[in-house]
Amino acid sequence: MFWLGLCGILLLSWGMPQNLASSEGPDPYRSWQQGRPGESLPLLWQKAQAHGDWALWYDTGICALAADDAVSAGRALLAAHRAAPWRNQARELLAQHDLPEPPRLHQDVLGPWPLLLQGWWGTLLALALSLSLCMCIATPWRRASGVSAILLGILLLPPLLLRSLDQHNDWWILKEKTVLIDVGGEPIGALQAGDIVLPISHDIPRRRLRVRDAENREGFVAQSLLLPVP
Q1: Can you give the CATH number for the domain in which 220 is found?
Q2: φ, ψ of residue 23 in degrees (nearest 5)
Q3: Least confident among 7-11, 194-198, 206-210
Q4: The CA-based dihedral angle spanning residues 91, 95, 97, 99, taken in that order and rounded to the nearest 10 degrees
Q5: Would you say 214 and 170 are in contact if contact means Cβ atoms under 8 Å apart?
Q6: pLDDT > 80? residue 50
Q7: CA 165 to CA 159: how far, in whole Å?
Q8: Domain of residue 213, residue span
Q9: Alpha-carbon gap, residue 117 to 61, rounded angstroms
């Protein structure tokens, strides 16, 4: 019961609307609106990292495209896609600019289901789950409250768990052109700047990562050539 209550609290924090977050600091859009997107990009990036909001990551990607920074655009749009995979805008913008397609997410199987946890809907459903759990203990309507808690848990917990799995699934993006090599240093194939690779293991002494690329080729890439997707 304790763990179900904890899940209710986590759902409540996830469902709280993003617009309640503080908006302190300089306006990151001002320089962009004045025709200097390169100056706005670091501020937008910092704000998007602080809040993890889909709209901020999407705007950061558009700003990076305006600043002719394809690698930063790819990273930001991939972060936007991971934040809200049921939205198509980030995926479509990646395709329009010949940037790599996002890897498959666990949440993809849910379709629009996670929309139930966004904004005030998520807050109300999380409150209902927490209330049902409390009523299971402290009221005579334990059976009805228990059934209600189970149904709400079935509705809310799968998106939360799959989202957590996706957030721990690392993506890396190449910041310049290189070659994928095997364990003996022989070339396997070319990789372009902006390509996405998935890490398999770290070769710490040689400062490289064993990775898998979009064509399912496995090999090694120098860690200095890779940037993480937020």
Answers
A1: 2.30.30.40
A2: -120, 40
A3: 7-11
A4: 80
A5: no
A6: yes
A7: 10
A8: 172-228
A9: 25
